[in-house]
Amino acid sequence: MNTCDICNKNFTQKSKLVVHMRVHTGEKPFSCDQCEKAFPENSALTKHKRIHTGDKPYSCDQCGKTFSQTSHLTQHKRAHSGEKPYSCDQCKKTFNQSSDLTIHKRIHTGDKPYSCDQCEKTFATISHLTYHKRVRTGDKPYSCDQCEKTFTTISQLTQHKRIHTGETPYSCDQCGKTFSQISNLTVHKRVHTDEKPYSCDQCEKSFKHSGALTEHKRIHTGEKLYPCDQCKKKFTTAGNLNVHKRIHTGEKPFSCKFCNKHYTFSSQLAKHKKSVNHLEMMKSCNNTVSASVSISFIKCEEVYVKEEIKEEEIFEEDSLSIQMRADNIDPLSIEM
């Protein structure tokens, strides 16, 4: 029996003990010839090199999706089976891999074992720390071979490539709609369940995704991050800024299909449709088309104008939020 003289762990083979000792010494003798990242085992280096080569030798026998590691394939298969064998002993939430459970438990403990050596901010996961460092330095090591756009993480690159391929591998089991990202599918499913897991701690209003909550909170703080480059007026959301810019550009994207009048805002079109002039126009159209068709038009329009019209709030994420979402990182959890 081969025993580690530091932690007393036993190994059946001396070679395994040699590899284990590197946990204590920090030795990493195997380095990548493309990015110089080092590893304690040759097998870890082999797996890492697939990031550069794009090699994915392991495929799912149900959907054909390929993976660079067997562990990733095993985890993926649980998406088909719904299996989540790892559960939290505090809140009973379940996970399909043990590493996710370990990270989740830090929500309860508040543990953040990874710290930035530049600003001393701490993080619950090594991936959050790595992401944080790359945002600080502007490092984007992953590039698209079709358009040469670069990305901070490999998952962002994978997601981006679907723009070129048109791939939408994630589908809703209720309506069949497909998505290029699993996070978009998760948000979409809340349309069916009406789940709103993100709630405001000041007014208790709830939202279907974290980006909407982030923008809502600006109502309370008064923060306005989006200034108009022509008049310097500021807005809480990018969507509201885009609507405002129509005042300067003269754009009128909302038109009445009967009167051919154009409006800057949807509220102006709604007001027009309720006006006497519009209804008179509808009646005049009655003289040029068959009675049955024109009456149906008028009935449809009269019902429409009686309805209460309410504009939907527009939420647009900035590029940084989109990147974090692509890496399944909650924007509220990352401090820069």
Brief digest:
The chain is an alpha+beta fold and 336 residues long. Helices cover 45% and strands 12% of the residues.
Description:
The strands form ten sheets. The chain has a two-stranded antiparallel sheet with strand order 1-2. It has a two-stranded antiparallel sheet with strand order 3-4. Among the domains are: 52 residues, 2-Layer Sandwich (Double Stranded RNA Binding Domain), CATH 3.30.160; 111 residues, 2-Layer Sandwich (Double Stranded RNA Binding Domain), CATH 3.30.160.60. The C terminus is likely disordered. The chain is built from 13 helices and 20 strands. With 336 residues, it is α+β, with helices and mostly antiparallel strands.
How many whole angstroms does the radius of gyration measure? Answer: 28 Å
Biggest beta sheet summary: 2 strands, antiparallel
Mean pLDDT, as a whole number?
A: 81
CATH architecture of one domain: 2-Layer Sandwich
Cα shape: elongated
Estimated helix fraction: 40-55%
Query: What topology, given as strand order, has the largest sheet?
Result: 1-2
β-strand number: 20
Name of the CATH class of one domain = Alpha Beta
Uncertain residue ranges: 288-336
Q: How many distinct helices?
A: 13
CATH superfamily of one domain: Classic Zinc Finger
Amino- and carboxy-terminal Cα gap = 49 Å
Query: How does the helix and strand content classify structurally?
Result: alpha+beta
CATH topology of one domain, by name, is Double Stranded RNA Binding Domain
- Measured by DSSP, the beta-strand proportion falls in 5-15%
